Amino acid sequence: MQVPFYTIEEYNLLPDQPGIYKYFNEDHELIYVGKAKSLKKRVASYFVKGSGLNHKTRKMVREIRRIEITLVNSEFDALLLENNIIKKNQPKYNILLKDDKTYPYLVLTKENFPRIFPTRRLIPHKGTYFGPFASVKAMNNVLELIRGIFTIRTCKLDLSPYKIQENKYKVCLEYHIGNCLGPCEGKQKEADYLKDIEHAKHILKGNLGIAKSYFRERMQLAAGELAFEKAHYYKEKLDLLEKYQSKSMVVNPAIKDLDVFALVSDEKNAYVNYLKVKNGAIIITKTVELKKRLDEAETELLLTAIVRLRDQFNSDADEIIVNIPIEEEYEGLNIHFPKIGDKKSLIELSLKNAKYYKQEKLLASGEVKDKKFRVLKQLQSDLSLQEMPDHIECFDNSNIQGTNPVASMVCFLNGKPAVKEYRHYHIKTVEGPNDFASMTEVVGRRYKRLLEEDKPLPKLIVIDGGKGQLSSAVEALKALNIYGKVPIIGIAKRLEEIYFPGDQYPIHIDKKSESLRLLQRVRDEAHRFAITFHRNVRSKKAFGTQLEEVESIGKQTAEKLLKHFKSIKKIKEASEEELTALIGAAKTKNIINWLSNKNGG
Predict the structure, then answer these.
(1) Which pTM value belongs to this model?
(2) Where do the domains of the chain lie?
(3) What does the alpha-carbon distance between residue 104 and residue 117 come to, in Å, rounded to a whole number?
(4) Which parts of the sequence belong to the GIY-YIG domain (predicted)?
């Protein structure tokens, strides 16, 4: 029910009921919309002296000339109505959700033999719209799946029964290559065609299980009737569905429909990441920026994002999980703040995305201006570190073909290689090629030494490898009681995935990001250092083995020569006096004869 407007002097006449209030300035321009459980109490809080309003809010209050209200049945209804009015009018003092994109949809047309095609224009009477999709790629993946499984026409012909009976059309190339069954010539009944459409609708809604059950039943039925070619046909369709589903990030099949929201903020803006989970898989991920107007509380910003993003992506999930507790309950919004389990992991994943988006925005706007530490600050944000990682150490193993296992540690200070701090390690306690055990050994040796010498620990430890190598390094830190005191990550080479201990899913930093390039540089330097060391060890071992072939030259003498001269070339260039002083006259004579025969060969 619409209530007549009030002047600012009449705010105390407002009803003690839920609703929305609208503030207008002297030009009759709507400048703010708010919601309230009690209009009387909420609006009064703006005008009562000593209510502790901030500077921005006081500025708004000075502009108010007229108040208009709308009563509703509940606070949740007020929340929805407030959202609709803000979307339509964009009042200057309301939270602004900065997202100027138009998103793609897939439309199922209302016509004989319906079509499915992409569009950015919503014309309700044209058909049923599915989406929006967060990206064109995501939309095309679904469309490609549907067209790969079902024979749905792509032409724009008017396939009314009359025109088909009058033989108005001829089948096209799509029919001849098997993508269409020729309804234009009456080769497919509309009832059969609509069965495919029904299954396509389930897929468009994210319910792949129904379509999978259908094709699995048909496959088993055909196989039971020994119609193996037909069974293979259904198996191919089932495989397409399985392949598509495997590309989605599977969370937990027990988690059906869920909306995940995580917020981070600064003085001017808030950044909210949204994950939509359907049947145990993340099917939509979207991050938005909200412009603060009146120093709004984080819970208010988060609530605004929840309502707008759920509306934008047509979400009807029964449960919403968030990273900030919202104490107030809203009928129609089932909001939880998980503290453990898979849902907590989802919140952490969403929060990582929100923090990354925030940092990218700050870099793009030029707000992070300190060039010396810009990359380190970005890396700190990307990895959610408490301190800037100005001291990074990275470990790598090398045991090519299982021989001479060694490891390396490289050190980067302020984002630059600190070559004097590099370390080589011969593996001492592990027999054979065992990367995991080797990693545990060298990480343990490194930080045991630092602790004994009372030297500072790094701000970030990087392990060249995936979950296995990372877990092995964590064992060493736990044994030294420093796990949790130093951040540690693993970086897997193939997809440049970043793993944190205990996290089921990796994070992916933008491949163009400066912070990822720094991590890659650190990782590649550790790998280069390890490979070079391994190559030298093999070379020296081969050299020592050759020297032991010389008469009267044993292992101890070979090692002495190896340590002093480093190579056969330098032994050749050495004088007889120099060799004699090192190993004696008799052994020197044998070495010289051996070298002469070797040159002659």
Answers:
(1) 0.46
(2) 2-94, 105-250, 257-365, 380-535, 548-600
(3) 10
(4) 16-95
